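User: Can you predict the 3D structure for this chain?
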Amino acid sequence: MSAKTREVSELVAESTTVCDKIDKRGKPNTLLGLDRDESLIFMWQTGIFGNFYDSLFKLLVAADVGNLEALRLGFPEEVNALVRFRTENGWWQHIEWKAQKLGLLPEAENE
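Assistant: Here is the predicted structure, written as C-alpha coordinates:
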Protein backbone atom coordinates (compact mmCIF):
# COMPACT_ATOMS: atom_id res chain seq x y z
CA MET A 1 0.00 0.00 0.00
CA SER A 2 1.41 3.35 -1.02
CA ALA A 3 1.80 6.20 1.45
CA LYS A 4 -0.96 8.20 -0.27
CA THR A 5 -3.35 5.22 -0.22
CA ARG A 6 -2.57 4.67 3.46
CA GLU A 7 -3.19 8.37 4.22
CA VAL A 8 -6.53 8.35 2.36
CA SER A 9 -7.55 5.09 4.04
CA GLU A 10 -6.77 6.56 7.45
CA LEU A 11 -8.78 9.71 6.68
CA VAL A 12 -11.73 7.63 5.51
CA ALA A 13 -11.51 5.33 8.53
CA GLU A 14 -11.39 8.30 10.92
CA SER A 15 -14.15 10.26 9.21
CA THR A 16 -17.58 10.28 10.78
CA THR A 17 -19.11 10.69 7.32
CA VAL A 18 -18.31 7.16 6.18
CA CYS A 19 -20.67 4.19 6.27
CA ASP A 20 -19.34 0.67 6.69
CA LYS A 21 -17.35 -0.11 3.54
CA ILE A 22 -19.28 -3.30 2.64
CA ASP A 23 -23.05 -3.80 2.79
CA LYS A 24 -25.07 -6.99 3.42
CA ARG A 25 -24.93 -7.94 -0.28
CA GLY A 26 -21.14 -7.82 -0.24
CA LYS A 27 -21.14 -4.58 -2.24
CA PRO A 28 -19.32 -1.43 -1.18
CA ASN A 29 -21.54 1.10 0.57
CA THR A 30 -21.75 4.69 -0.46
CA LEU A 31 -19.78 7.26 1.44
CA LEU A 32 -22.08 9.86 2.97
CA GLY A 33 -22.02 12.95 0.82
CA LEU A 34 -21.09 11.00 -2.32
CA ASP A 35 -23.62 9.16 -4.49
CA ARG A 36 -23.20 5.48 -5.39
CA ASP A 37 -21.25 6.09 -8.61
CA GLU A 38 -19.04 8.68 -6.93
CA SER A 39 -18.36 6.35 -3.99
CA LEU A 40 -17.36 3.45 -6.25
CA ILE A 41 -14.98 5.60 -8.28
CA PHE A 42 -13.56 7.30 -5.17
CA MET A 43 -12.82 3.94 -3.51
CA TRP A 44 -11.28 2.60 -6.76
CA GLN A 45 -9.13 5.66 -7.43
CA THR A 46 -7.88 5.93 -3.84
CA GLY A 47 -7.13 2.21 -3.53
CA ILE A 48 -9.31 1.51 -0.51
CA PHE A 49 -11.27 -1.37 -2.02
CA GLY A 50 -10.65 -4.94 -0.97
CA ASN A 51 -9.06 -7.49 -3.28
CA PHE A 52 -12.27 -8.45 -5.11
CA TYR A 53 -13.22 -4.92 -6.10
CA ASP A 54 -9.64 -4.01 -6.96
CA SER A 55 -9.58 -6.99 -9.33
CA LEU A 56 -13.05 -6.23 -10.67
CA PHE A 57 -12.14 -2.67 -11.59
CA LYS A 58 -8.91 -3.85 -13.24
CA LEU A 59 -11.06 -6.21 -15.33
CA LEU A 60 -13.60 -3.50 -16.16
CA VAL A 61 -10.88 -1.09 -17.25
CA ALA A 62 -9.27 -3.73 -19.49
CA ALA A 63 -12.55 -4.93 -21.05
CA ASP A 64 -13.48 -4.01 -24.61
CA VAL A 65 -16.97 -2.63 -25.33
CA GLY A 66 -18.59 -6.05 -25.90
CA ASN A 67 -17.13 -7.57 -22.75
CA LEU A 68 -17.93 -4.47 -20.73
CA GLU A 69 -21.57 -4.83 -21.75
CA ALA A 70 -21.47 -8.50 -20.72
CA LEU A 71 -19.99 -7.52 -17.35
CA ARG A 72 -22.76 -4.94 -16.96
CA LEU A 73 -25.21 -7.86 -16.52
CA GLY A 74 -23.54 -8.84 -13.25
CA PHE A 75 -22.13 -5.49 -12.17
CA PRO A 76 -24.40 -2.73 -13.52
CA GLU A 77 -23.52 -0.13 -10.87
CA GLU A 78 -19.79 -0.63 -11.27
CA VAL A 79 -19.94 -0.46 -15.08
CA ASN A 80 -22.15 2.66 -14.96
CA ALA A 81 -19.68 4.35 -12.60
CA LEU A 82 -16.74 3.48 -14.83
CA VAL A 83 -18.55 4.77 -17.93
CA ARG A 84 -19.25 8.06 -16.15
CA PHE A 85 -15.60 8.24 -15.08
CA ARG A 86 -14.48 7.76 -18.68
CA THR A 87 -17.01 10.00 -20.41
CA GLU A 88 -18.05 12.87 -18.12
CA ASN A 89 -15.47 15.60 -18.42
CA GLY A 90 -14.35 16.87 -15.00
CA TRP A 91 -16.40 14.32 -13.05
CA TRP A 92 -13.43 12.81 -11.17
CA GLN A 93 -12.14 16.27 -10.28
CA HIS A 94 -15.58 17.10 -8.88
CA ILE A 95 -15.52 13.91 -6.78
CA GLU A 96 -12.08 14.85 -5.44
CA TRP A 97 -13.35 18.33 -4.57
CA LYS A 98 -16.40 16.90 -2.75
CA ALA A 99 -14.21 14.36 -0.91
CA GLN A 100 -11.90 17.16 0.26
CA LYS A 101 -14.87 19.17 1.54
CA LEU A 102 -16.16 16.06 3.36
CA GLY A 103 -12.74 15.43 4.95
CA LEU A 104 -12.18 12.18 3.02
CA LEU A 105 -9.12 13.57 1.23
CA PRO A 106 -6.54 16.10 2.36
CA GLU A 107 -7.16 19.58 0.98
CA ALA A 108 -5.23 20.28 -2.22
CA GLU A 109 -2.24 22.52 -1.78
CA ASN A 110 -2.31 25.77 -3.73
CA GLU A 111 0.41 25.83 -6.35
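The radius of gyration is 14 Å. The chain is about 60% helix and 0% strand.
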